[in-house]
Amino acid sequence: MRPDTPAENVDHTAEAARLERTAGLYPEDAEALLLRAAAHLELSGDRPSATKLYDRLLSSSEGLDNPHLIRALKASNLWEYGHEAEARAIIEGVRASAPRDPAPWVIVAESLESHDELEAAHDTFTEAVRLLLTDVAQPPQPTHPLLFGRHRVRRMLGRSHDEWDALADTVHSLPVSLDELHDPKRVWSLGSENPAELEAEILRLRAELGAYREALSRPFPVAILHWPAEELRELLDAYPTLAPEYPSHDEHLASIERALRELSSSGTPNLGIVTGTVPSYEAFAASEGTSPGDATLLPQYATTLAARGRAVAWPPQQGAPCWCDSGRAYGECHGSTA
C-alpha cells in the first residue's frame, strides 16, 4: 500500500506496523521500509511515533543511504506538531550540509513554505537550484519539484520571472501553465458565484493534482531481475539447473533491455530493475521453502525486491550511467540500441 493512499482506504497504523516487522526480517532494506512506515504514521496522526522512527534510523550504527532526507523528513514532521525551534535547527543543518540529492531540499523548502516562511523557502529553493542545476543542460526529473516550488513561491512573493523560472516553464508539461497554476489570486475564485469561474478553477485544480500525483505517487515498479557478472557466475556454479535461463551474461543484459522496451511499448508504466545477489536469493528461497535451483522462483524474487524498495527506475535519466554498471552513459550503452 502506498503511503499517499487516503486514510479512509487504509489502516495506516497497521500498515506502519507491518512495514516495521518487514524491516526486522530484511535489515538491509530497513531504511526504505522504515521511511515508508514513518509516512504511514504521519498520515495516521501519530507524529511522535514517526519521529521515533526517524530517530531510530539516525541513531543506527549502519551506514545510511539518505541521512539528509531522513533529517529533512524529521524536521517537517516535528514542525507539524509544535516543535518549531527544533525543526528550524534541523532545516538549517540540512541547508548547511548542501546535499546533492534534490529530495531533502524540496522537503525543507516546502516545510518553510507551508508555515508562511516564504522568503526562507525562496532562499532554500534558490540555493538548491544553483547547487544542482548550474551548468546542467537538461534538468533531471527529480530536480523538477525544485524549479516548480521556486516558481510557486516567487509568484506568491510577487517577484518577476528570472532565468530559473523560464527553465521551470520549459520542463513543465501540463496543459495549464505554471503562471496560472501558481497565481496567488486563484484562491479568491473558489468563493466566486460565477459558474464559469468555478469550472475554470476546477480544471486548474485537476491539472495541479495531476502534477502532484505524478511527482509523489510511485507504486513499486514492474521490475526485471539483473545479475552482475560475478553474481551470475556464482549463481550458475551453485545451481546449474538455472543455466537455460542465462545462456551468457551479455545475453542476460540484452534480454533485460529487450523485455523493458517491450513492456514500455505495450503501455506498461513504472518499470524498473532490481539487482540480485546469491545470498539474498538463497535466503528468499529458504523463506519460501523452495530450492534456489527452481527457475519459477526468479520472478517472485524480483517482485519481492521491488516491494522492498530495491528497484531502480528504467530508463535512466538522460546522461545518467547505464543500469548494467558498465560505467558508460545509458545512451552510449544499452540505451543506444534501436
Which characteristics define this entry?
globular; three-stranded mixed beta sheet; single chain; mainly alpha
Order of helices and strands: HHHHHHHHHHHHEHHEHHE
Amino-to-carboxy terminus distance? 36 Å
Helix/strand/pairing category: mainly alpha
Q: Got a strand count? A: 3
What is the helix fraction of residues, given as a range? Answer: 55-70%
Radius of gyration over C-alpha positions, nearest whole angstrom: 23 Å
What is the count of helical runs?
Answer: 16
Sheet with most strands: strand arrangement: 1-2-3
Strand portion, in percent? under 5%
Give the uncertain stretches in residue-range form: 1-7, 213-218
* Overall morphology: globular
Oligomer: single chain
Task: Give the biggest beta sheet.
Answer: 3 strands, mixed
Rounded average pLDDT: 85
Structure characterization notes:
With 338 residues, this protein is mainly α. It has helices at 12-25, 30-44, 47-58, 67-80, 84-97, 102-114, 118-133, 144-157, 163-171, 178-181, 186-189, 195-216, 229-238, 249-265, 278-288, 297-307; strands at 222-226, 271-275, 312-313. Strands 1-2-3 form a three-stranded mixed sheet, sandwiched between helices. α1 runs antiparallel to α2 (30-44), α6 runs antiparallel to α7 (118-133) and α7 packs antiparallel against α8 (144-157). The two termini are 36 Å apart. Residues 1-7 and 213-218 have low confidence and may be disordered.
Q: Can you give me a brief rundown of this structure?
A:
With 338 residues, the protein is mostly helical.
